[in-house]
Amino acid sequence: MSSKISLSRYLVEQQRSKGHIPADLRLLLEVVARACKSISHAVNKGALGGVLGSAESENVQGEVQKKLDIIANEVLLEANEWGGHLAAMASEEMDSIYLVPNRYPQGEYLLLFDPLDGSSNIDVNVSIGTIFSVLKKPEGTSQDGTPSAPGVTEQDFLQPGKQQVAAGYCVYGPQTTLVLTVGDGVAMFTLDREQGSFVLTQENVQVPADTQEFAINMSNMRHWADPVRKYIDECLQGKEGPRGKDFNMRWIASMVADVHRILTRGGVFLYPWDKREPHKAGKLRLLYEANPMSWLIEQAGGASTNGHTRILDLQPGQLHERVSVVLGSRNEVERITQYHAEI
Ligand code: AHG
Ligand code: MN
Ligand code: MN
User: Fold this and answer.
1) Fewer Cβ in 10 A, N or C end of the chain?
2) Residue 71 CA to its chain's centroid (Å)
3) Residue 117 belongs to what domain range?
4) Does residue 207 sit within a domain?
5) Same domain, 177 and 267
6) Which atom of ligand 1 is the closest one to the Cα of 251?
7) Distance (Å, whole) CA 138 – CA 214
8) Segment 239-296, tens digit of pLDDT
9) pTM of the entire structure?
10) Is there a single domain that holds both residue 279 and residue 196?
11) How far, in Å, is the centroid of ligand 1 from the Cα of 102?
12) Ligand nearest 69 Cα, by number?
């Protein structure tokens, strides 16, 4: 008998012995993982599968969609709509929420996703991924105190990240790796292509509290606010500067891949507010990028903030809301938070 632990077995154990997840959440996560497997196959085919290049359309945020953005979005919708565990879905690539069609039973969960993260890396064969977050549909009451009518509205999705019941991502790189939390630490699963299943390859993932590696798009330096400028400037001064140590820099431009590196060996990731579009809080999206990644990082002992407030405490105001993000090794995130309080 093989001693390998599959994702299915891990989830059954989370349900049965640890009591962390109910059966329908387990099924939901199995379906998301199956969808990621299918996206992974499409990614691997590349030019042979005709999946590269632009779709020549724009999403609600005015970004040009790649063919794979649309393919991944459709794979996730189709895989998840019929199982009976979901009430509705929301995606970076869709203007508004997607209700489970009437012909299928409706469940109590809401699924949010960035179907394809790192779109600018698709055509150049650099790691990309899928990010997902699961919330429970709120059990609302009407103004007269009676339970509200069944059905889902956009408002139901506007819950702070600390209310997530599961979050994760799948990175399509040299290996396809699914990383998951259901509130019991972070576990990593590698896709075994011969078996066709995700196999547990690391449990209890921990982000070291200290690091000498930062990730930021340096080309935006002239647009940054002072606290970010000060932090990076001190890192760049290395051994001779106030930090007294040299720093290394990495920027993959796929949040999944940058976060995966940080979960693996530590580091700090910043996509801060900047002056290019001052009315926007940041580039990254709160509900389907920052929240799931922040919960994973916190579950691994790291920290995540917008510079002032813990990301998981932020009350979203709208579905496609953006946010400034600083996450990773705890002591660096605390230092950056302190600079924001001081300057
Ligand atoms: P997406 O491909 O889903 O739009 O997300 C891309 C995001 C994120 O993954 C990455 O960290 C960042 O955009 C890169 O932005 P720059 O190209 O501005 O560096
Ligand atoms: Mn993204
Ligand atoms: Mn995307």
Assistant:
1) N
2) 18
3) 7-202
4) no
5) no
6) 19
7) 38
8) 999 999 999 999 999 999 999 999 999 999 999 999 999 999 999 999 999 999 999 9
9) 0.96
10) no
11) 35
12) 3
